[in-house]
Amino acid sequence: MIKHTPRTQHAPQTQRTQHTEHTPRIQHAQYTPKRYGAQRTVKNTADKEPIVRFCPLGGFEEVGRNCVFFEYQNEIIVVDVGIQFPEEETPGIDFIIPNVACLEPKKRNIKAIILTHGHYDHIHALPYLIEKLGNPIIYTGLLTKALVEKRFQEFPNLPKLKFQLVKNGDKFKLSEHFNVEFFDLGHTIPDEMGIILDTPIGNVVHFGDFRVERNIKGEAIKTEVFERLGKVDIHSVFLDSTNADVLGTSISEEAVENELEKLFKNAPGRTIITTFASLIDRIAILFKIAERTGKKIALNGRSVKSNVEIAKRLGYIKNPRGLEIPIEEISKYPDNKIVILTTGGQGEPNSGLIRIANGEHRNMRFKSQDNVIFSSSVVPGNERSIQTLQDNISRQVNEIYNYKFLDIHSSGHANKADLTLVMKMLAKTKFFVPANAYYFKRKSCAQTAWSVGIPKTNTPLVDNGQICELTKNDFKLTNERVPVNYVMVDGLGVGDVEEVVLRDRLMLAEEGMVVVIATIDRQTGKLLKNPDIISRGFILLKESKTLLDDIRNKLKNVLIRIPFNQKPDPDYIKGLIRDQIGQLLYIKTKRRPMILPVLIEL
Ligand SMILES: [Zn+2]
Q1: Residue 519 bridge partners (DSSP)
Q2: How confident is the model at residue 23 (pLDDT cuts 50, 70, 90)?
Q3: What pLDDT was estimated at residue 498?
Q4: How far does residue 242's CA lie from ligand 1's centre (Å)?
Q5: Do residues 472 and 48 lie in contact, with contact meaning Cβ atoms separated by under 8 Å?
Q6: Is residue 409 annotated as part of the catalytic site, yes or no?
Q7: Is the dihedral of CA 495, 496, 501, 505 positive or negative?
Q8: What is the whole-number distance in angstroms between the Cα of residue 66 and the centre of ligand 1?
């Protein structure tokens, strides 16, 4: 059981907490910086001091693949095992997962995996890593469990998962040295859980992703959880920094609801709305508004259907009889009685919305009286595809609404002012650790902390893979690193996309390819016919006769020099062709396409 009685070691804080009531600038629990040096000089006592090791395996230099662990002696607790969506530098990759190579040899020590919530960037790497992590007990909320189970249906050969369901207020022993307590936090999906991990060096709090809920007037609500945490001695708190660089507060979900209700009511025809399939809270609101405005709601897209199915089963989405209809039946109702909730708000290829926009959908086309609502923010990197999609839709419908000109999207992450509020409330916390985002965003979070009087030394900016040593009064960033390079998932294969494959993809994308096909006599090596040259993504060879001739001549010259009576290795011949033709093309075109030599021996 966790006891939140003040620890004697933290005695000076009482004084500081009182102090804060009289001054707007909060004085947070501080440690004395000289300890860094002091620890070395009093090595004998330092050795006896408990040290909890902390390390992020992902999520500290990106938004995604969240995964951290805490280690004390032979016990390890892992928090979140998420994926990251691919980037420009990783073409053709489905997603990126955390590298758990440093944990694999110690998998027997892993006592628990805690999942804070059911978003892909916190849970979706589990099928690929659960065996490497020794299949320990997974502690999580009801909806998260259901989403993980749904995901595992795609991997029938994996061992059965061991779950322990947790809810707000649950407190128990995880292992000999770790206790845990779970608490509810606001995000955009039900069952988002923060944790208080009671460790040998004190309480460590992890918020997962969170936001500060606001009412319609913009006032913070449901702040009891922060008030309560403010009374607890906390060694360090890990703060979601995703929106740390966004000024102001997050928009109230109530305001979003009001705007959406107005749009639903005033729609001249059908309302087509897109949001992330994982924003279960938002989807629940859409069901409510559809019911209040007397409309039918139809779902389009696999992920939205599957998530709504789970959320309805667990009671997170209320679906009174007759509210939801199959998309095949929308034409049975007047257009202004129809709401279609679809995937594809990020312009993803093959998504529900793209298929409607391109006239490829089996059940519907856009109509001129339709309104389309994008109730989601733009994920960085998707700007172009969203713009193209909106242009396309704009030509076909009455109106497009997006979050830029209406409050129809509220983010699930605390903005700068929200973080300020929380930091002030957590008066008995020593270290504020910016987490779950790029360095830039985490530094914004640290700056916010400095602005409320938290010393710079108490806002450690940890890199992925950097081992930190937490002692009662210290949060030490060490020089020890564990591997955190990308592990890529391509199709169903894990980590089989090596860097060389990626380099090939980039080369093909940038320079194109040239295939040189030489048909030769097996015995003499003589060319039996004029070589075939095929190119893709390189210059149009058909139109450059001289270059074609140059390649053929070069190839003949290369082959003549090879002593075929000595039975040369075909790979050697191919390598030679690749080098020589590559050089020629570079001299002639200043480009380096991929050369694929094909040798047909007859
Ligand atoms: Zn999330």
Answers
A1: 600
A2: very low
A3: 59
A4: 10
A5: no
A6: no
A7: negative
A8: 10
Q: Is the pLDDT of residue 42 over 50?
A: no
**Whole-model pTM above 0.90?**
no
d(CA 262, CA 252): 16
Q: DSSP letters of 119-163?
A: -HHHHTTHHHHTTTTT--EEEE-HHHHHHHHHHHTT-TTSPPPEE
So what's the pLDDT on residue 499? 60
Q: Which residue from 126, 122, 182, 180 is spatially nearest to 155, judged by alpha carbons?
A: 126
> Tokens 């936001």 — which residue?
211
Give the pLDDT score at 174: 97
User: How distant, in Å, are the alpha carbons of 223, 247, 415, 450 from that of 427?
Assistant: 14, 22, 19, 14
C-alpha dihedral (539, 545, 550, 555), degrees to nearest 10: 80
Would you state the pLDDT for residue 487? 83
For the cut 90, the answer to whether the pLDDT of residue 567 exceeds it is no
C-alpha 117 to ligand 1 mean position (Å): 7
Please give the single-letter amino acid code of residue 172.
F
Whether 240 is a known active-site residue: answer: yes
CB distance 472 to 233 below 8 Å: no
- CA of 106 from ligand 1 middle (Å) equals 28
From ligand 1's centre to the CA of 54, what distance in Å? 21
Which tens digits make up the pLDDT trace of 54-79?
999 999 998 899 999 999 999 999 99
How much distance in Å is there from the Cα of 206 to the middle of ligand 1?
13
Q: Would the pLDDT of 40 be above 80?
A: no
The pLDDT, as a whole number, for residue 13 is 37
- Which helix (H) or strand (E) is 326 found in, with range? none
Average pLDDT over residues 283-293: 96
Indicate which residue of 117, 124, 206, 413 is catalytic: 413
Catalytic-labelled residue, pool 184, 240, 281, 418: 240
Query: Which spans in 153-274 are helix H?
Result: 224-230, 253-266
Which of these, 409, 276, 264, lies nearest to 351 by C-alpha position? 276
* Euclidean distance between CA atoms 18 and 11, whole angstroms: 13
